[in-house]
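[User]
If only I could read C-alpha cells as easily as an amino acid sequence. I have put the entry right below:
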Amino acid sequence: NNRFGKEIEMLWKTHGENLSYQDKLNAEIALQASKIEYLERVNTQQAITINEQATIIAQHEATIAKHEATIAKHEATIAQQAITNKEQATIIAKHEATIAQ
C-alpha cells in the first residue's frame, strides 16, 4: 500500500500550479521517497518469497532423493527375485530330469 505517495500525487495534481519551485521540489522529493519506501517493502517481500520457494525446492529435492533410493531398493529386490527365479527353474529342471530317468 503506497497511500502516502498517492496523497502527495493528488496534492501535486490539485495544487501544483500554486506551489513555489522549492515547494514543488520538496513535494517531488517526498513523492520519490515514498516510492522508494514502497519498493523497498516490495523487495523485502520478494526476498522472503524467494527464500520460501528455495525451502520448498529443497524439500522437493529431498523427497525426490528418497523416492530414488526407494526405486533403487525395488530394483535390487527385482534383480534378486530374478536370480531366485533362475535358481528355482534350475532346481525344477533337475527334478524333472530325475523324474524322467
About this structure: The longest helix spans residues 21-100.
